[in-house]
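A common beginner's mistake is to predict each chain separately and then try to dock the pieces by hand. The better habit, illustrated here, is to supply every component at once so that their relative placement is modeled jointly.
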Amino acid sequence: MLNFEFYNPTRIVFGQGRYNDLDRLIPPHARVLVLFGGESARKNGTLDMVYQGLGKRHVESFGGIEPNPTYETLMKAVEQVRANRLDYLLAVGGGSVIDGTKFVAAAVFASGDPWEILLSHGANVKQALPFGTVLTLPATGSEMNSGSVITRSDIKAKLFFTNACVFPQFSLLDPTRSYSLPPRQLANGIVDAYTHVMEQYLTYPVNALVQDRFAEGLLSTLIEIGPRVLANPQDYDLQANFMWTATLALNGLIGAGVPQDWATHMIGHELTALYGLDHAQTLAIVLPAMLNERKADKRVKLMQYAERVWGLKEGSEEARIDAAITRTREFFESLGVQTRLSGYGIDAEAIPPVLKQLESHGMVHLGEHRSVDLDVSRKVLEACL
Amino acid sequence: MLNFEFYNPTRIVFGQGRYNDLDRLIPPHARVLVLFGGESARKNGTLDMVYQGLGKRHVESFGGIEPNPTYETLMKAVEQVRANRLDYLLAVGGGSVIDGTKFVAAAVFASGDPWEILLSHGANVKQALPFGTVLTLPATGSEMNSGSVITRSDIKAKLFFTNACVFPQFSLLDPTRSYSLPPRQLANGIVDAYTHVMEQYLTYPVNALVQDRFAEGLLSTLIEIGPRVLANPQDYDLQANFMWTATLALNGLIGAGVPQDWATHMIGHELTALYGLDHAQTLAIVLPAMLNERKADKRVKLMQYAERVWGLKEGSEEARIDAAITRTREFFESLGVQTRLSGYGIDAEAIPPVLKQLESHGMVHLGEHRSVDLDVSRKVLEACL
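With all components supplied together, the output reads:
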């Protein structure tokens, strides 16, 4: 097991309709900015319940945070916070709204250009506004971690930052909030959570037995419930298991004491920034190709994955590994998520710009061995066609 | 899944020899009381490394905290803290030292008799001194939770309290600190961690898929490494897995959103208080008898346990359940821990005093269904003979 430090102070409040808990979770004299995305949070009643839970506090709203939240939009929220001396943020939405709120929380205190927060990957963040979240879409795990991914439209850049100052103080997880999500968003969430686990699990063995068992438990659960969530989106227990699984997939626990990969995510980010694919679509495309290209590096864990997650115990090692990768691809496809660039009308001409972006963002030594250079990325992308 | 709230702000610093990290983890002007048990922490060098890590801070020591730490001893530490205006505690030891430190941290602020903390099970705790821990014995999970069990010698009472004020601020987990533990303590630790998982897992199903998978992962890991840790106590990876497993067994995670039992623990506490058995010995005695007595209540989860943890898929349901309970007993015995009262020279005459103590401590509606009354406890104890 590798040395590690694990710290996660986010309080999880889990269950249906616990909006009155907001009153105890947020300071009584807080001046609150509620941040949200499109109109679904209003239409399905979540915002109303949130406002009611906030009681007599001074509350303002900021809507319109996009999927892949942009610097440009979020800076308007920063202005509102500064102008009206707001001191508490409440994100109501999925990973995009929560990631955006983290950026706002940190950017309010930035002395120079807040885009530096992304360029430094969070190293220059010293302070952030306190905030909580009301999760409406299980997927990213942002509700219980200190990471955030922000897009800048003008330069087509999608970069991450992480800093302990932007752990949510609390996250209210109400599985019924996902009942009305469209199938595409549910499917994306399942793929996203699955890939988060894979980035931390499918590397090389370091004898971290519990981390492996936990990761395998999360993967097995997603395989078990994924298609059922799509078929029965109003089943409380299915949504509850999906929501808690997605949160645990990226709250630092299964990544503590093990090597991590994240090359699939970094390449995926560039595909979204350049061609507008959903985040999870990029993961569904890149992950199977990535595993296949780097079979040698990942051999031992691929064997373990094949056996423990997919129950593949027969045949040659090569056959079992290939079957496990195929099963992964088929699982994503079974959720209705295409796993080839061609499925989204993207051809080989798209590859050089992605490589150029990776280079310009310093993403030239990716993966658990830092061995995913531009040549490997090119091979992976070619295998994604 | 049941509604839940999960909050655990303890920072885990994991790895060999990270004592210099104490300097960053503890405020620079803290006046520190280092609490420890017997002489082993001094003999094996842990205390020296701790003192060095604390640098130029004002540091005092308080040794002699017993296994099953007593109110009487701990009140002397409370006096020392008050007399010398100490403001930070550092527990160096296993669960007894850490539990004792939690009591000291809370008792310093008690207005009346600090024993009230135990009688209220922590409900009356409003404030506690900040403290960290340096763990030397994997077992209780106290290093990452807010619970504590304290014994009062004069009235032979062993009671618990829990309060969010007594989460350790940090715990330094150095697997090499367990290298010199005697086999009995290692075996006790394995049994203790195993039983902690069982108290949260082996109840009735509530469709909490991830909690079940995580619990099964911890149990499988303990079964895999238990005998190997005893045979190779200086194997870093084995001790690292044991230490992290024991921490995760009782940090609130696997118990979030599921029913919990704890009847085995409550009966075990009385056996320790009256007859001086090691805590883990009492668990090894009571757990198999408890599972057997309450087979009907626990049927579905016993079947799942039999299949997923012990791989028992053949034979009648009854046979598989019996085999799983037998395997559990054999696992404890394989570690050298006796699982019958008779193995410790205790006979049927011991039972009535235990029942009397349970009654006087209000332990008359135990278990996940509150169905373990004195009659059930009596049957369980008779099956322990």
